[in-house]
TrEMBL record:
GO cellular component terms listed in the entry, alphabetical order: membrane
Domain of life the protein comes from: Bacteria
A molecular function (GO) term: magnesium ion transmembrane transporter activity
CDD domains documented for this protein: CBS_pair_Mg_transporter
Keywords: CBS domain, Cell projection, Cilium, Flagellum
The name this protein goes by in its record: Flagellar motility protein MotE (MotC chaperone)/sporulation protein YlmC with PRC-barrel domain
Organism: Nocardioides panaciterrulae
Domain CBS span(s) in chain numbering: 352-410
Length: 424
């Protein structure tokens, strides 16, 4: 470990790629696992929580870490692919230690932990040695003064707090993709998860909820007050909101639908009216829909929306008025590749592909899969008996319903399971 820096701060490790000796990336750092015994003795760093491909979280002992530098972590390559489960004697640095209220007696400072530094001791063990603390903001300052102190000079690090904040943990989560943030929230202790959910803004929480297992979604939503729960459901994509509401007790579902904006609730009710695992139940009612008099410049402006899922940005759906589902007569789709080859001022009607039969809402999940595969599509229109567009089924909608519920807990393939790296 001759090139390893003498001190590494935990927040800077999160998200770094982990490589094996051959230079192949095997995962990303998501947290540090430490054994905290007292406020005098520096806690030993037991290992890393790594996210490997398939969003599985595993434990990587520090004895398997061969090098840490500014941009990556290297391991021996011998990793135990068993899903990480935190023990009662262990503490997660990012998940549990950030935002803890502490006191530095020598400075007369009270604040919250926003980072923790680790370094190698003489016996080659990694230990937590520094604590970065931020005081509350005073006066017109947006941020309070910061201090970095020795571990032994800080009080309150071993004390559990009933009302521990989540400001700095939220900052770390906001740097992650929703799927990665969902994975971290899933693994948090109940009290920390509650604090995080309370602190996340509605839009971000909606994004994260869409990536969580159904039981987590239901648990989180049932612990929110009804007004906020309805706001969260409005921020979710209608198909995900419909799936979640269907898992709630009927009286709860009815209350939330009543509190939602009428237009949003109507979309959800319509999706819930279709049988499970059909095109109608899986579709989103919010693809890019344009009239035949729209220009290609209009179409390109719509698909440039950064909030639009990649699968829905691959094509626009051309319909007669009205353009809100159920629309007027569905005319066809215009593929983004075709649009990019045409002058922006020309009408989108001249680029319509009307050669494919659209799906019907009662189409089974197998029929949807066969349709997308046959035509090499990432999205397909769903129309009713009158030829009106109801929505679009995307390949990610299909995968969400085809994969087994526990797919995140299953290794990608037998070759991904490697011996060694056991926690003992």
């Amino acid at each position: 470990m001759s090139t390893t820096p003498t001190r590494v701060f935990a927040a800077r490790l999160v998200g770094l790629p982990i490589f094996d000796p051959l230079g192949d990336q095997v995962g990303k750092v998501r947290d540090l696992v430490v054994a905290v015994r007292s406020e005098v003795n520096q806690p030993r760093v037991l290992g890393l929580v790594a996210e490997v491909f398939g969003r599985r979280r595993i434990f990587v002992p520090m004895t398997r870490v061969t090098n840490i530098d500014s941009g990556q972590v290297y391991t021996t390559g011998l990793l135990n692919m068993r899903r990480f489960e935190q023990r009662s004697t262990e503490t997660l640095v990012i998940g549990q230690m950030l935002d803890r209220t502490v006191h530095i007696p020598s400075l007369g400072v009270t604040g919250t932990v926003y980072d923790v530094g680790m370094e190698q001791a003489r016996n080659r063990d990694w230990v937590l040695s520094r604590v970065a603390v931020q005081e509350p903001a005073k006066g017109l300052r947006r941020r309070g003064q910061t201090h970095v102190a020795e571990w032994r000079d800080v009080e309150g690090l071993t004390r559990r707090e009933e009302t521990q904040g989540a400001t700095h943990l939220i900052a770390a989560l906001n740097e992650m993709r929703p799927a990665d943030a969902a994975n971290m929230i899933h693994d948090l202790p109940v009290e920390r998860r509650t604090a995080v959910v309370a602190a996340l803004d509605d839009e971000r929480l909606a994004d994260v909820l869409e990536e969580l297992p159904e039981e987590d979604q239901v648990e989180i939503l049932e612990h929110l007050d009804s007004e906020r729960a309805a706001d969260i459901l409005e921020e979710m994509s209608p198909d995900d909101a419909a799936d979640l509401i269907a898992d709630l007790p009927p009286e709860t579902a009815a209350t939330l639908l009543q509190l939602m904006e009428p237009d949003e609730a109507e979309d959800v009710r319509r999706l819930m009216s279709y049988a499970e695992h059909t095109a109608g139940a899986m579709m989103t009612p919010e693809p890019v829909i344009l009239g035949p008099d729209a220009t290609i410049a209009d179409a390109l402006a719509h698909v440039r929306n950064p909030d639009l899922p990649v699968s829905l940005a691959a094509m626009v759906f051309v319909c007669r008025q009205p353009l809100e589902p159920p629309t007027g007569r569905f005319l066809g789709v215009a593929h983004i590749q075709r649009l990019l080859r045409e002058p922006p001022s020309t009408l989108v009607a001249g680029s319509i592909d009307d050669t494919m039969d659209p799906l019907r809402p009662e189409a089974s999940i197998e029929q949807v899969a066969a349709h997308l595969a046959t035509y090499n599509l990432v999205a397909a229109p769903v129309v009713d008996d009158n030829g009106r567009l109801l929505g679009a089924v995307t390949v990610d909608d299909l995968l969400d319903h085809m994969l087994p519920e526990n797919w995140r807990d299953t290794p990608l393939r037998p070759g991904d399971v490697r011996p060694g790296g056991n926690r003992g």
